[in-house]
Amino acid sequence: MTEVAKLILDGKELELPVITGTEGEKAIDIRSLRQQTGHITFDPGFGNTGTCRSAITYMDGEQGILRYRGYPIEQLAEHSTFVETAFLLITGQLPNRDELIRTSVDLNDFSTLHENMKAFYQNYPPKAHPMGILSAMVNAMRSFYPELQDDVEEEMNKTYLRLISKIRTMAAMAYRITKGERVVYPRPDLCYCANFLNMMFDSAVVPYYMDDDLVRALNVFWILHADHEQNCSTTAVRVVGSGKVNIYSAISAGISALWGPLHGGANQAVISMLERIHRDGLTIDECVAKAKDRKDPFRLMGFGHRVYKTYDPRAKIMKKMCDIVLSKVSQADPLLDIARRLEEMALSDPYFIEKDLYPNVDFYSGIVLRAMGIPTNMFTVMFAIGRLPGWISQWKEDWSDPEMKISRPRQIYSGALVRDYVPMSEREPAN
Ligand code: SDX
Hints:
Elements: E1 4-9, E2 12-20, E3 26-28, H1 33-37, E4 57-60, E5 65-68, E6 71-72, H2 73-79, H3 82-91, H4 97-109, H5 115-122, H6 130-144, H7 153-178, H8 192-201, H9 212-225, H10 232-241, H11 247-258, H12 266-280, H13 284-292, H14 313-328, H15 334-347, H16 350-354, H17 361-372, H18 379-399
Helix pairs in contact: 2-9, 3-9, 3-18, 4-7, 6-7, 6-11, 7-8, 7-18, 9-14, 9-17, 9-18, 10-11, 10-18, 11-18, 12-15, 12-17, 13-15, 14-17
The protein binds s-citryldethia Coenzyme A.
């Protein structure tokens, strides 16, 4: 028997079906609401609105649970690699040995860029933000790789791998060229993460020393960022993709959405906040007081989350990574000490407790990236590289979902009532 929700409106009783997910989550199916009642729902920011059914990622914000295709994030972070996790997200299954080898070979084959794409970089000003460059370069892929048959699975699998492989090269190239350094090409003998580090930091003068622990840390960093159900940037990818535009343009939209300081840009904002505290000698008490003051725009970046109302499970793993990567670079990071004291203070403060504000994935990630030598303006680019398999898997699911239609929300109009045009001669002069 279908479970229903009863709605009484204008004296009439309406029954709406209730949808139940595999983990027992419930949703009221309102697809017939406007047609039956003339009413729509109102939910700015979609905090109470499900936009799709998805089999990719499961989150429980109250319990602090995160699973990709049923696998707990803690197990993937401990045992998997980023390439294996990307395969899992996109296909729904962990790869067997041959599939993993095939995927790694394809990622190597796709790792270089069309030489003409390099010209794009030469014309960016040195201060250009790499997120803006990355979004533009991914969109430009449609022009350089036009052989895109959305309805041929074999072709689309190649496209997914092309994106995952080239985004690394594009990101490293943005860093090197804006620094005025020669571009380092990908190497077939290096794994996905090692190749990225080498493209970023190898030098003709001082060859880059590949530290296996840092390569492992980068794998974990990207595994933790790989997907997160219907977050802002994934919603952007789905909404833009719902118009049946090519995947490159949809992913480019996701990169732009991720850039915001309330979303993926928070990792860069956390470091800026910690640096400001360190530079200006702000006390932890002053920071917490500013964060609590509603008249003060200062927010504790890296704290709070729309879904997690407890510790973000990714932040726990990221915090542990801080100690590992900092021990490799044998220098203490004063910002880590500030972060730890800030966290300790906030977790015991009634304001943060009442509002369920806990550290999220971005709170410690910047410290891990700094220890790897990643410059601050590349932090959100690192998030984007990690999130790409998630965006691809969500885009793919959206395109193959028979329930999906072009995204076109409604609104409640709050503007002027109807009025006639006023000729200039009759308009009030500016006072
Ligand atoms: C990511 O969605 C995802 O899954 C995102 C993500 C992913 O993997 O894709 O997890 C990645 O984006 C993580 C979040 C990174 N952003 C930040 O760290 C920026 C700082 N955090 C906030 O701006 C905020 O917490 C959000 C944006 C993350 C969530 O905002 P919500 O859910 O819209 O909550 P809200 O802004 O309405 O805040 C609720 C209350 C408010 O107080 P009141 O108006 O009720 O009095 O909590 C307060 C807020 O002022 N609050 C904070 C705060 N975050 C919320 N107060 C101080 N410091 C903060 N960080």
